[in-house]
Amino acid sequence: MATGTPGKGLQVRGTGGLPAPGSGETYTHGHWQQAYQMMRDCLKQLPVALDALLSDLTAADVGRTQAAGMIRFADGARTWGQLVEQTLNTIDPIALPVVEAVTAAGGPEDVNGMPYYREV
User: Fold this and answer.
1) What's the predicted TM-score (pTM) here?
2) Which of 3, 9, 2 is nearest to 109 (CA)?
3) Are 99 and 29 in contact (CB under 8 A)?
4) Distance CA 63, CA 74 (A)
């Protein structure tokens, strides 16, 4: 896997550091990887939070319709979490080949100018 070209501002993995000046990038793949991990960590906590929410219903002695509504809410939240995770899992297989192609072409500074497109 490509690791980016030093000074080119292209960061496939890592700290999500700032892009190189003049690279045209405002958000690197390193930034994406950090955000992705944060989202996955939050999604892992969702089932625990929902279970705690539902267990509180018994302690609060809620009515049957209130409990049914909260169970529907929890089920919907679980489904939403699964959809978010599926979406997250589709990004790298799409993005990494593009990042690797840009890296192979010399990095963003070499592919964001007209001379590059005249060669293509």
Assistant:
1) 0.54
2) 9
3) yes
4) 16
